[in-house]
Design goal:
The chain is mainly α. The protein folds into two domains: about 70 residues; about 90 residues, no CATH class. About 70% of the residues lie in helices and about 0% in strands. It contains six helices and no strands.
Length: about 160
């Protein structure tokens, strides 16, 4: 299978998952006719259409373009695994620690050394992303079960 086919399959999977997540957004009394999930669902449909286009292009050009090696597929699977570990740790560890771990883990997985510089970049990246999402955009992120137990706060608190 060539790159277009592989990317088309991956994007189609992302589109389906994104559509399912967008459909789970609860309606609001203040929502317009489209509703809070309308635009995300539209994005998922467009992504799905683009993925189908890539799949068709990949099937039409079986001999054209480089083929995806097993090694590359394993590297992609490893990155997806890092993302899965991030999602699993997020409720317990909280957003700042989880995203710092994801940044550090990705840098290490891509061949970087695990040194003070990489840890500093991960920590600074976590702080910047937390500031952007929680402070600037007002999107609450989980602080982590360990912080909630320590402070006795309810789940999904208001950032840190």
């Amino acid at each position: 299978m060539n790159r277009d086919g592989v990317l088309g399959l991956v994007l189609l999977g992302v589109a389906v998952a994104y559509y399912a997540a967008a459909s789970a957004i609860p309606p609001s009394d203040l929502a317009d006719a489209v509703g809070p999930g309308g635009l995300p669902r539209a994005y998922a449909v467009v992504l799905g259409a683009l993925a189908l286009g890539l799949l068709a292009r990949g099937r039409g050009h079986q001999d054209a373009g480089p083929h995806v090696s097993r090694r590359l597929l394993l590297r992609v699977a490893g990155l997806l695994g890092l993302g899965a570990v991030y999602v699993l740790l997020l409720p317990w560890a909280g957003y700042p620690l989880s995203i710092a771990g994801l940044i550090i883990g990705t840098a290490y997985y891509q061949g970087g050394r695990l040194d003070r510089r990489v840890v500093a970049v991960g920590a600074l990246g976590a702080v910047v992303l937390w500031l952007v999402f929680v402070q600037v955009l007002g999107i609450d992120h989980p602080v982590g079960a360990w912080v909630e137990r320590l402070l006795g706060e309810p789940p999904l608190g208001e950032g840190l």
